[in-house]
């Protein structure tokens, strides 16, 4: 299993740390707030109260030996940039950092941060797209300008029909990649698959066609 | 096309507004900061400087006639909750709101907000999962505890082989749902599909199997 460091326990950092832990990985979290460190201590491998700008401290935990470090403190752009520069200098193998703005992110790219995250920007795009599709859309991945994968709750009109009867590919250029009943998933369901009430369909098509589909119904 | 209102032009709100606009929908944005309103004015249908807690104002723009309202101001939990309550009372059809914390979100659910967004929490989960998979993972959707869809850059070892040769389904229970060369996407590629350098594969499998796959290579 992997070994990761998360610096900063804001909402983003805490979520990264808890998710990594729940997936079975080893997680060291660092935060300058005693309270935050105490709160998460039972849920991660190690939680240490420290200032991430302290080079001595980072060396003492052998930070370069980890698979990756996630820099999740972003309110102070200065502190974020300096910590990232320090990690780079210490030879950390892979750095993921949250950025406050596009300009901040550009600086991080220049200093060699491997992956830059803009949580609010990215979620804004996802939410906007999901909102315009349907209130049935549960998740959304854009594969290309012409292809989007969506998870959509099966509309009432589809219930009881087979995929062959619906003939989505011919009628509106949409393919059903998978169908989910509860936690049970059928990958690449055949034409004989019957849609039940409550099914979740994983569909691929263009944004325009997916929107047309749900305007028809 | 749809008609939407976005209240609050933080990073999340601005991203929602710009994305909705770029998708061709009508967008009214409301923010109490003159500067923010000016900055976005050319990119949306209408941008108005106003305080969203002002009921008179909301009635004057006929806010209940819109398809949905996105409440993207979340720094003041109090203001966020009160604006949401006001929108509900004014008969807004569908409300999406950003929440600061789980407790805040719980209140919003109780007052009838339709969809609650936790951008930092959700992105934290996505980033953690993508991080542990591979630095090749471009995007990630969890369909069920046993099925995840990932977009992954084709590893060197796959280049020049056909899907039949790789036999991923038999060897590690992974199906390739689509393959992308640049913007060109092949949905449900057949066994004869040859993987090129630079291809992006859209694969489905369990978290464990997808991780095993990329540990083998
Ligand atoms: N130099 C530092 N060393 C260690 N921890 C730090 C340092 N600076 C800030 N932190 C911690 O980082 C955490 C996140 O801080 P910050 O205010 O930057 O979050 P944020 O970007 O607003 O978070 P989010 O939006 O994810 O909730 C806080 O818990 C804070 O104590
Ligand atoms: N009562 C209000 N009426 C209108 N606009 C408001 C009101 N209160 C806050 N805003 C605006 O909402 C925007 C977002 O504010 P807020 O500080 O809540 O964002 P945030 O949640 O930190 O944003 P981000 O999406 O960047 O994380 C600001 O531009 C602010 O001017």
Going by CATH, the architecture of the largest domain in chain A would be: 3-Layer(aba) Sandwich
- List all distinct small molecules, including ions and cofactors, that are bound in this structure: adenosine-5'-triphosphate
Averaged pLDDT of chain A? 90
User: So how many helices of chain A?
Assistant: 9
Radius of gyration of chain A, CA atoms, in whole angstroms: 22 Å
CATH topology of the largest domain in chain A: Rossmann fold
Counted up, domains of chain A total 2
Q: What profile does the largest beta sheet of chain A have? A: 6 strands, parallel
Q: Assembly type of the shown chains?
A: homodimer
Q: Cα distance, first to last residue of chain A?
A: 46 Å
Please report the two chains with the greatest interface, counting residues with C-beta closer than 8 angstroms to the partner's C-beta. Answer: A-B, 62 and 62 residues
CATH class category of the largest domain in chain A:
Alpha Beta
């Amino acid at each position: 299993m992997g070994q990761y460091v998360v610096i900063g326990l804001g909402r983003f950092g805490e979520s990264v740390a808890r998710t990594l832990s729940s997936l079975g990985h080893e997680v060291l979290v660092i935060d300058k707030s005693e309270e935050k460190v105490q709160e998460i201590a039972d849920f991660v491998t190690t939680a240490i109260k420290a200032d991430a700008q302290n080079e001595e401290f980072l060396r003492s935990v052998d930070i370069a030996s980890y698979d990756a470090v996630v820099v999740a403190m972003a309110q102070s752009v200065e502190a974020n940039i300096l910590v990232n520069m320090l990690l780079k200098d210490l030879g950390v193998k892979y750095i993921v950092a949250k950025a406050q703005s596009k300009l901040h992110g550009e600086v991080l790219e220049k200093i060699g941060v491997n992956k830059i995250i803009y949580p609010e920007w990215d979620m804004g795009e996802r939410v906007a797209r999901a909102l315009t599709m349907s209130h049935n859309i549960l998740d959304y991945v854009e594969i290309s300008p012409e292809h989007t994968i969506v998870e959509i709750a099966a509309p009432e009109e589809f219930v009881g029909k087979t995929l062959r009867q619906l003939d989505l590919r011919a009628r509106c250029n949409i393919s059903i990649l998978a169908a989910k009943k509860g936690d049970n998933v059928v990958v690449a369901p055949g034409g004989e698959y019957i849609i039940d009430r409550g099914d979740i369909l994983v569909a691929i098509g263009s944004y325009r066609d997916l929107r047309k589909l749900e305007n028809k119904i």
